[in-house]
């Protein structure tokens, strides 16, 4: 059964960490909704490979609209971490025990949303202490699946295994 995936991005998202998972999700017949602060805005990838039009603003959505949340890495995640509405959305998603797919710098956004207490996660090594300070257990491995609710990877090089795991979680 096709699932509805929210993708949380703004300017300077990691191009490959957006493009490859979204292409795989669409190929598997899931729907994708790009979310930022303002609908209709065009946001650009960190390396200039992507321009993405935002489908819905954060004020126009509910966690009930989606089955899973994808957060690509890059500076986008850091920028979004200052908006309380974004943090509340992520926190509510976590409380509802819906799947969150986190890549690279997205771990910083999860730290700010206060959803890592007693969770296991991977991210780039530079964020290990922040993850631990937020109450999470950090593993320096290519993929961590915490009870099909938090699926995380470190780098763009880990995308094949990350995408495979995300698609498996969506089948359940």
TrEMBL record:
Pfam families: DJ-1_PfpI. Residues 3-167 form the DJ-1/PfpI domain. It comes from Acinetobacter pseudolwoffii. Belongs to the peptidase C56 family. It comes from the Bacteria. Coiled coil: none annotated. This is DJ-1/PfpI domain-containing protein.
């Amino acid at each position: 059964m096709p699932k509805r995936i929210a993708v949380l991005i703004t300017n300077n998202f990691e191009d490959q960490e957006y493009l490859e998972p979204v292409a795989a999700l669409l190929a598997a017949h899931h729907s994708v909704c790009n979310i930022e602060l303002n609908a209709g805005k065009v946001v650009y990838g960190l390396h200039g490979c992507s321009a993405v039009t935002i489908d819905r603003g954060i004020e126009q959505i509910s966690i009930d609209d989606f089955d899973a949340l994808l957060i690509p890495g890059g500076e986008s995640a850091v920028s979004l971490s200052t908006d309380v509405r974004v943090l509340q959305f992520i926190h509510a998603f976590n409380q509802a025990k819906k799947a969150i797919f986190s890549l690279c710098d997205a771990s910083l956004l999860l730290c700010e949303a206060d959803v890592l207490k007693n969770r296991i996660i991977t991210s780039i090594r530079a964020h290990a202490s922040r993850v631990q300070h937020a109450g999470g257990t950090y593993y320096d491995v290519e993929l961590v699946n915490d009870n099909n609710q938090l699926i995380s990877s470190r780098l763009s090089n880990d995308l094949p295994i990350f995408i495979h795991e995300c698609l498996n979680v969506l089948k359940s």
